[in-house]
Design brief:
It is elongated and about 105 Å long. Helices cover 22% and strands 50% of the residues. The protein has two domains: 52 residues; 173 residues, SO1590-like (AOC barrel-like), CATH 2.40.350.10. The strands form two sheets. Strands 3, 4, 5, 6, 7, 8, 9, 10, 11, 12, 13 and 14 form a twelve-stranded antiparallel β-sheet that branches. The protein has a two-stranded antiparallel sheet with strand order 1-2. It starts with a strand and ends with a strand. By secondary structure, the protein is an alpha+beta fold.
């Protein structure tokens, strides 16, 4: 008895040769399978190339970049108050707080606010300055400058500079003018935006004028110090834009 089987949708005898139509359908199925396989291969290659491009772009975007800069400082005036009167600083020290926001311009453009606590013994320190035994007197303590702005080659964000080695190089008592130099470093963990994870250090050179602040009670011993000068140094930006 001859059995009939189904081949690609056709019913044929088990012992008979496939018809021409059956062979055509078989070939068509194989071609279709090859075409589907080729499309899958092409799609896989396209996906791999796309991922490679994205990963390469991300790698380039996260390249650490170190920027050297010079910026001009224009500060309408910091307010100086006796420690103890300002509870954030100990008695015998001087609290320095932003009276009006300062600004950096040039390669680093920012709004600068902040403050800190420094030592202050005017008689001893002015005598040291006049003696000529050294280059000037150095304040103990530090000031934190909070910068909000942008740095050429780095991008935009926030970062804090800590000012130390505040050294008065000259001071004229009659006019209340003086010249001061300083060092600064980026405070770890303070950066946001392009300054996220940033590090850096540099120097500053500042001239200023000390004058009484009659807008507040005299017993607080307030002074306002408008100052101007230059900050320069390097900042390394892991997340520059």
């Amino acid at each position: 008895m001859r059995k009939k089987v189904r081949v690609l949708g056709l019913v044929v005898d088990e012992n008979s040769e496939p018809t021409q139509d059956a062979r055509y359908r078989s070939e068509t199925w194989r071609n279709d399978a090859r075409w589907k396989l080729m499309r899958r291969v092409c799609a896989s290659i396209g996906l791999i190339l796309t991922l490679s491009f994205v990963l390469n772009a991300l790698a380039q975007g996260s390249t650490v970049k170190t920027v050297h800069f010079s910026a001009h400082l224009d500060d309408p005036g910091d307010r100086l108050t006796l420690g103890g009167v300002d509870p954030s600083c100990p008695v015998g020290w001087v609290a320095i707080r932003t009276h009006e926001p300062a600004h950096l311009s040039g390669q680093f453009r920012s709004t600068d606010t902040g403050g800190g606590c420094v030592s202050w013994d005017p008689v001893a320190q002015l005598n040291d300055l006049k003696s000529g035994d050294g280059p000037g007197f150095v304040f103990a303590g530090h000031i934190d400058d909070h910068q909000v702005g942008s740095l050429d080659g780095c991008g935009t964000g926030r970062v804090t500079m800590r000012l130390t080695d505040l050294t008065v190089r000259s001071f004229d008592v009659a006019s209340g003018t003086g010249h001061l130099t300083l060092k600064w470093v980026v405070v770890d963990g303070t950066g946001t935006g392009a300054f996220l994870g940033a590090s850096g250090k540099g120097t500053g050179s500042v001239d200023g004028t000390v004058s009484p602040d009659f807008g507040v009670p005299l017993l607080t011993a307030p002074f306002v110090v408008p100052n101007w000068g230059t900050y320069e140094g390097t900042i390394t930006c892991p997340h520059h834009s």
